[in-house]
Amino acid sequence: VKVTFIHSDGREETVDGRVGDSVMATALANDVEGIVGECGGSMMCATCHCYVDDGWSERSGDRMDGEEDMLDCAASELRPTSRLSCQIKLSEGLSGLVVYLPEAQL
Ligand code: FES
After folding, report:
1. Where does the pLDDT of residue 96 fall: very low under 50, low under 70, confident under 90, or very high at 90 and above?
2. Is the CB of 69 under 6 A from ligand 1?
3. Hey, whose CA ends up nearest to atom 4 of ligand 1?
4. What PROSITE patterns does UniProt report for this protein, alphabetically (predicted)?
5. Is there an atom of ligand 1 within 6 Å of 74 CB?
6. Domain limits at 41?
């Protein structure tokens, strides 16, 4: 499934992800800069912060329990579309997903 990452400078990168993988893992596997994922996906770091494109926010689901608290620790501005990308699992229905990367993760 395709995932498009839009960097804070407007640069776009579209990569192939595997169903079941998280958006964070997909970014790391494809060397997408701007996602750090320090804790490996256990909701302990907030360095995988991203903004889900408005057209995808419903399909990508709600924030998980505890995600909100961790997002409060994110380095960049929090927005209604903020998510921890390690908590978004890819599915066929999410092919074409677009997420924006924040200016900083640390
Ligand atoms: Fe640490 Fe997502 S990778 S919270």
Report:
1. very high
2. no
3. 43
4. 2FE2S_FER_2, ADX
5. no
6. 2-100
